[in-house]
Amino acid sequence: MRCFPLLALLIVAATTPAQDFVARSITVPATQKRGVSYTFDASWQNADRVVSAPAHEAGIYLSNDATITWRDVLLRTTNHPGLPPLASHRLVTNVTMPSGALLGTRYLAIAVDHLGKISETNEDNNIQKQAVQVVPGPNDLPDLVVSSLTASPTVVYRSSTIDVTTTVQNIGIGDSASSYTGIYLSDDSVISSTDTLLTTQVTLPLATMAVDTLRNQISVGSASTRLGTHYLGAYADQGAAITESNETNNTRATRIDVQGLPDLRVDTLSLDRNSQIAGGVVRAHYIISNRGDITAPESTVDIMLGPSTLDPRALVLDRKQIPALAPNATYTWTATVQIPYHRAPTQPSYIWVVADATRQILELSETNNRLYRVMLVTEYTGTQLQLEFVADGSSSAISVTRVETVLSASAGGRVTMALKSKPLAGHWVLTSWSQTATFTYDVMTEFSLGLLNSPTFPMWFARLDAVTGLAFPRFVMPNVTLSSSLRVYGRTFALQPDFSGVSGTAGFITFDLKP
After folding, report:
1. Residue 259: DSSP 8-state
2. DSSP SS3 for 423
3. In what order do the strands lie in the sheet with 446-451?
4. I need a surface site. Which of 79, 84, 132, 314 has the fewest CB within 10 A?
5. Is the pTM of this model over 0.85?
6. Can you tell me the mean pLDDT for 18-25?
7. d(CA 141, CA 138)
8. pLDDT tens-place string over residues 89-120
9. Residue 111: which of 91, 125, 126 has the closest Cα?
């Protein structure tokens, strides 16, 4: 019996020698689209050397596996005249791959005398088959869906950024051309083209079941975005440019929460002058406002002296704690600040006002916290010798200009030094003098001790003055007779308030004493 069971249903008994149909070949395109016709080329022979084969019918079948049976799909039949002994026949025709054919590897077959009407000497050689790859056809439609959507973080602030990962998949039968996927901000979980479009990204062409993963960093809303619960949504084929088998499953949403932030801003800054001598004072008037959604807690405002691009190591001239500010509230203040003595001769400087100077508050915008005005500073040319402590952005103090002079021993004299170190306020200051760079106790030795920025000891301190600055301490020339010049070294240290260690040093100040 041949392996085509249907042919066994009708067996005709033969009393004479029987013919033998042998399927020799089949040629079809290896890839075939559903709903499309292709050339089907097959041949067979009457292999008997004596008996002619009568007229017969052949069947063309489509099978899901390599075993061809009567249960498979009969695509069409063809009728053919008889074949003399050893004669062959070739069939060339068009066969349409059914629109309902399963995708993937399938088998096309020719079965000669497929109903088994003719008795043959061999019933098992009437079939030839070929594997074909069935793919979507022109009438097969894609179906784009957002198979996954993630957002990180899910708690965000207005105008902040969020990382969004979107996976678009084609779950349809047909291939999809390139499309656009939109990311939307919505008040509800139903995403539509009427929601707020945040960004659009090109999605690659997708074969059936293929995916394209899109990654975006998106700014969520603006200053006008409503606070509270929102939904971030992805919309595959947002412009509806692709015809799909299902147009209702193109979106997916994930919840995010938009929270409010304060936003401190320097609205105005004005100075009572645009030039000053080093050591002189300036009045700075400023207004700070909160343009955010919620109350800004108590914060720090610094007035700083620095370059046109503010450096964290710029000098802090004034630091003020301002109270909490409700949304749209303002704070106005006028501060008197001293230009340090150590400023270089005739150089342009910039006086800055910096809101939230210690960066303790998370704000809606961090770019509007500062404002500056240009100040032309000229060199101090007074007669007093000045020594000045200035914070350099860390906990240490540094020695500055005008740290050496020549004095007459016979005339005697007194030297006054200006002292300024805002970050070290309340620290103790110890100054020692001797004739050697490494301290030794000698006739020139003198000690001064005081509190930084605090006029605690009247003999060593004077109050802030617009002309002379803060005076500290005084070195009194000893009554000595010199035969030659003598250099005296002064050393100044800032000590922790509890005397637990040195918090800064001003290095040396030197005096050359003449006879």
Report:
1. E
2. helix
3. 404-408, 502-514, 486-495, 428-434, 446-451
4. 79
5. no
6. 93
7. 8
8. 999 999 999 988 998 999 999 999 999 999 99
9. 126
